[in-house]
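Lab notebook page, bench 4
Experiment: in silico fold of construct C2
Operator: M.H.
Input chain length: 285 residues
Purpose: comparison with the prior construct
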Amino acid sequence: MIHFVGAGCGAADLITVRGQKLLQAADTVIYAGSLVNPELLQYTGEGCQLYDSSRMTLSEVVDILVKGSRGGKKMVRLHTGDSSIYGAIREQMECLKKEGVEYDICPGVSSLSGAAAALKAEYTLPGISQTVIITRMAGRTPVPPKEQIALLAEHQSTMVIFLSTGLLKELKKELLKGGYKPATPCAIVYKASWADELIVRGVLEDLPEMAEKHHITKTALIVVGEFLGEDYELSKLYDPSFSTGYRKAVVPEEEKESPAEAEIRKPKEDQDNQDVYNYSDGRRI
């Protein structure tokens, strides 16, 4: 069996309990050496074979996975963050399917979540944004034309931008072109949850300079949106005047209706206790 495991956003103790157990039981681990925290490899047992996929091609990775699995070994393919976001696992899974080799996926904590935790922020604030757009700038690898940053920016929602730290001047132009104001709050989160984590806050107008000043060129997320500002609405979830499936609304005494006011609001039929209906044809009798 082959297990794809999301390593989490950086800190070794942010891997899931399941992911840690899979590493401890593994005979072979192929890990994304360019991004995965090497401290995670300490969870592996004695004799576990380790391969750094940053120096390997797709066919080399798949060859080791297939041979190991067919040899009865417990195989772990360790990806950074959560492998479903820019993890390049689809192509690996397709190769395994063609070989008739079984696999499963253990999700991980994405740097998307790690960045929010580092910022002590909530991406989806009531009255500000209820949508998070996860994307990246077009670079050596293009993006579909309909997913150009300027087009996505027109929504004015929260944006979390991966793999774009080296393109911040272009990113700034695209975001402004899409409608964000120069004073829109933004932040650069470098290596969220790692020991050398760094957070730089500012406004969109200064985005490239924010990175240059702190020598950030890679391994960072760019987050943009008014969710980083001060204004927002309180959630209805804990509003005492809002009923849920678990509690009834509590109306302050001064806002409660008097019996007379409640009577006025009743439908005419409810007020007139003398009304009698013939239910066979709906006529009042």
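Observations: DSSP finds nine helices and twelve strands in the chain. The first strand starts at residue 2 and ends at 6.
Next step: discuss at group meeting.
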